[in-house]
Amino acid sequence: MLGRSNSVKVKGWISTTMPSDLCSVLIKNGGFPAPQVGGAMFKKDISRYFRVKPGTKVKLDDYSASEGGPKAFRKLDKKELKEAVEKMLEKNIAELAEAQQLLYANDVYSLLLVFQAVDAAGKDSMIKHVMSGINPQGCQVFSFKQPSAEELDHNFLWRYYKALPERGRIGIFNRSHYEEVLVVKVHKELLLKQKLPPAEFDRQFWKDRYDDINNFEKHLARNGTIILKFFLNVSKEEQKKRFLKRLDDPSKSWKFSAADIAERSAWKDYRRVFEEAFTETSTKWAPWYIIPSDHKWLAHAVVASIITKSIESLKLKNPEVTEEQKKRLAEARKSLENEK
Fold it and tell me: Closest Cα to residue 133, out of 176, 103, 168, 90?
């Protein structure tokens, strides 16, 4: 049984604060060092180590995104570690494909995955790798850009309502309704385009928006939508490396925008609004998960594990065939066998 949190900061792969016995396992074995250790760890529900507990006042400096780690971890062969985690990812992708089939067959629940991050944190590659094994007919991805004139004529949640997944399907928001308390909070001039009634954009205004989001998500959860929200926590140093890589690689240069540099200059402001959003909107029915993302291969494995275990926790089974259906199936078989 996992113990209480260890107050000692371990600048590692998972978080700077971990249950004490998990912390000891990581120090002893160096994180996810060998296939058998990694396998055991990923068979368990590891989501608790990344989930923002409701009521927590979030400080992102308490969550490591860097390559650091305890001395025992740094002595490990990184190549072997990466190979072990990638095997776990492959296993989770296969399990996710099976879980998706049950989700679709039952036609009761839907799954909404929300991804938020600063630029170059790896949202696109996360979606590409983690969802690579599922049936595309049961999945839909929406990337929300600047709102259109029609969208600005409605309330700020309207365009997200339209994109919600149907029962049995997985919906992915690559950026989401949280932009309305993130980028809009950093660039308050954007509020002037939203045709809002006269109001002061003060603390109460933002508190009301958080309440609207929480109520929106609670309504969805009550009606069978499982909501998982992921923040890909990348360091400023790693973002710089990825920007430079985009500039150096002609096949990736199209991803770079001059606006990326302008947004990077507001790094501290974005960290602050992310912290406020996680503090106010990580709930029992729609939790936030802060994922260390300086190393994409680790981030992919962690997110895949959390998604898979969340669907499996529903304990779905293939729908039972009724007596009437069995009769019709028997008639269909007989008809096929009697064909000449």
Answer: 90
Dist. CA 146–CA 164, nearest whole Å: 18
Please give the pLDDT value at position 44.
63
Q: Where do the domains of the chain lie?
A: 5-318
More confident residue, 74 or 250: 250
CATH number for the domain running over 5-318: 3.40.50.300
Residue 312: closest CA among 139, 100, 42, 93: 100
Q: What SS3 string covers the chain?
A: CCCCEECCCCCCCCCCCEEHHHHHHHHHHCCCCCHHHHHHHHHCCCHHHCECCCCCCCCHHHCCCCCCCCHHHHCCCHHHHHHHHHHHHHHHHHHHHHHHHHHHHHCCCEEEEEEECCCCCCHHHHHHHHCCCCCHHHEEEEECCCCCHHHHCCCCCHHHHCCCCCCCCEEEEECCHHHHHCHHHHCHHHHHHHCCCCCCCCHHHHHHHHHHHHHHHHHHHHCCEEEEEEEEECCHHHHHHHHHHHHHCCCCHHHCCHHHHHHHCCHHHHHHHHHHHHHHHCCCCCCEEEEECCCHHHHHHHHHHHHHHHHHCCCCCCCCCCHHHHHHHHHHHHHHHCCC
Per-residue model confidence as pLDDT tens digits over 305-325: 899 999 999 999 988 888 888
For the segment 321-335, what is each residue's pLDDT rounded down to a tens digit?
888 888 999 989 989
Q: For residue 6, which amino acid is it?
A: N
pLDDT at 207 over 50: yes
Question: How confident is the model over 102-129, as pLDDT tens digits?
Answer: 999 999 999 999 999 999 999 999 999 9
Percent of the chain with pLDDT over 70: 83
Contact 100, 160 (CB under 8 A): no
Query: Average pLDDT of the chain?
Result: 84
